[in-house]
């Protein structure tokens, strides 16, 4: 869990001019924690241009393309929150859960995220989270429930 | 347009470009919904759809690529990652053993 979700990559008071800027910030967080090569960011932008990664409830899950997988050094997630919202092709995104993955190490966390997004109250809690601990708790607790 | 019966679906594949993001999330929710049915749910990049897939679910933007990779498979395109009516229909067809037009 801690390896996948590094507290340094949980940034909850971000600002972005537009969608591309938001994705670059997400990518930079993954680069900063040593999860990807800098070139991965361009594949994230490319993926978003072909198909939006907006998944609902004000959340997007930007990630690279198939080609970008070669630039992933280890599986990791970054959680960036944009309190002012970012226009995402007509939708407003408040939280980005950025993904770098070669394997399936992050599957449980994404399963937890799906559960959160299907629950209005938890989705709101995630959108309004100002402390990294809240994000870790939300993604972590549900994960245990899914496994049981 | 083809018809497949939910009872004949043993393996459902969620196809994505990289197979690391939205397909993973959709596959995990489908796995949960279909847990009791014994249907296998996998997520794969669209370029490597397994030969034994009975039905392929993918974003509408990837449907053309999925059809070229797996021309003989029923493809179900969707627009929304969570709660798309097209995907709900597949789940219902499997759970109730009813026909599905794809």
From TrEMBL, chain A:
Pfam families: PTS_EIIA_2. PANTHER family: MANNITOL PERMEASE IIC COMPONENT (PTHR30181), PTS SYSTEM MANNITOL-SPECIFIC EIICBA COMPONENT (PTHR30181:SF2). This is Mannitol-specific phosphotransferase enzyme IIA component. The lineage of its organism: Bacteria, Bacillati, Actinomycetota, Actinomycetes, Micromonosporales. Residues 3-142 form the PTS EIIA type-2 domain. The keyword Phosphoprotein applies. Keywords: Kinase, Phosphoprotein, Phosphotransferase system, Sugar transport, Transferase, Transport. The phosphoenolpyruvate-dependent sugar phosphotransferase system (sugar PTS), a major carbohydrate active transport system, catalyzes the phosphorylation of incoming sugar substrates concomitantly with their translocation across the cell membrane. The enzyme II CmtAB PTS system is involved in D-mannitol transport. InterPro entries: PTrfase/Anion_transptr, PTS_EIIA_type-2_dom, Sugar_PTS. The keyword Lipid biosynthesis does not apply. It comes from the Bacteria.
UniProtKB/TrEMBL annotation, chain B:
It comes from the Bacteria. InterPro entries: PTS_EIIB-like_sf, PTS_EIIB_2, PTS_EIIB_2/3, Sugar_PTS. Keywords: Phosphoprotein, Phosphotransferase system, Sugar transport, Transferase, Transport. PROSITE patterns: PTS_EIIB_TYPE_2. Coiled coil: none annotated. Residues 10-99 form the PTS EIIB type-2 domain. The phosphoenolpyruvate-dependent sugar phosphotransferase system (sugar PTS), a major carbohydrate active transport system, catalyzes the phosphorylation of incoming sugar substrates concomitantly with their translocation across the cell membrane. The enzyme II CmtAB PTS system is involved in D-mannitol transport. This is PTS EIIB type-2 domain-containing protein. It comes from Actinoplanes couchii.
């Amino acid at each position: 869990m801690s390896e996948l979700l590094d507290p340094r990559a949980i940034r909850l008071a971000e600002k972005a001019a537009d969608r591309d800027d938001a994705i670059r910030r997400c990518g930079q967080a993954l680069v900063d924690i040593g999860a990807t090569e800098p070139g991965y960011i361009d594949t994230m932008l490319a993926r978003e241009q072909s198909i939006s990664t907006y998944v609902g409830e004000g959340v997007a899950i930007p990630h690279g393309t198939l080609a970008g997988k070669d630039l992933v050094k280890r599986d990791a997630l970054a959680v960036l929150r944009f309190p002012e919202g970012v226009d995402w092709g007509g939708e407003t995104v408040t939280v980005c859960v950025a993904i770098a993955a070669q394997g399936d190490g992050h599957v449980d966390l994404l399963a937890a995220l799906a559960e959160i997004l299907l629950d209005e109250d938890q989705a709101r809690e995630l959108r309004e989270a100002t402390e990294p601990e809240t994000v870790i708790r939300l993604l972590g607790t549900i994960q245990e429930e899914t496994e049981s | 347009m083809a018809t497949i019966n939910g009872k004949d679906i043993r393996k459902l594949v969620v196809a994505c470009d990289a197979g690391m993001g939205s397909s993973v999330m959709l596959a995990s929710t489908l796995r949960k919904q279909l847990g009791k049915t014994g249907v296998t749910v996998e997520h794969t990049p669209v370029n490597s759809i397994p030969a034994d897939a009975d039905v392929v679910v993918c974003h509408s933007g990837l449907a053309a690529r999925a059809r070229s990779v797996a021309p003989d498979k029923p493809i179900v395109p969707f627009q929304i990652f969570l709660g798309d009516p097209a995907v709900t229909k597949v789940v219902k067809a499997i759970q109730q053993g009813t026909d599905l037009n794809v």
